[in-house]
Amino acid sequence: MNYLFFGLITLAVLVLTGFIIYIILELKKTIDSVKLSMESIEKILIPTVEELQMTFKSVRKITDDVGVVTEDVKGLSGSIREISANVKQVSEAVSTITKTSAVQVTGLKAGVRAGFGYFIKNFLAKGKQDQ
After folding, report:
1. H helical segments located in the chain
2. Which positions ≥6 away from 90 have C-beta within 8 Å?
3. How many whole angstroms separate alpha carbon 61 and alpha carbon 53?
4. Cα–Cα separations (whole angstroms), residue 82 to 46, 85, 91
5. Residue 9's pLDDT band (boundaries 50, 70, 90)?
6. How many Cβ atoms from other residues are within 10 Å of residue 10's Cβ?
């Protein structure tokens, strides 16, 4: 009976050893397959990451350029605001000069009429006295 018991134990150990060897061989195949997959993923992933980095650099440059353009537009807007204020001041000055000139021309016109009227009146009155 002891021999039978030892024979069964030996058989069980042999079956277990065979099963473990089979699992180890399948595990090695799986590891090799995973290595191969990782290498192919790495070949695809590295260029993708490099291109992504270049894209990020381009986007960063574009955003920097947009910042510069924004600053330029702000400066241009300020200059246009100053020009607008200067044009308004010039317009007000021209309007004031026009109003003043109109008043002065009207006064000059009235003065010339009065002067000619007085001259003609005195000239005619002097002419009557001489006769």
Report:
1. 2-130
2. none
3. 12
4. 54, 5, 14
5. very high
6. 10
CA distance 126 to 121: 8
Question: Is pLDDT above 70 for 54?
Answer: yes
Q: How many CA atoms lie within 13 A of 95 on its CB side?
A: 6
The tokens for 126 are: 């002097």
Confidence at 20, pLDDT banded by 50, 70, 90: very high
Average pLDDT in the chain: 86
Check: pTM over 0.70? Answer yes or no: no
Which amino acid belongs to residue 31?
Answer: I
CA distances from 121 to 5, 91, 108, 112, 118 (A): 164, 44, 19, 14, 5
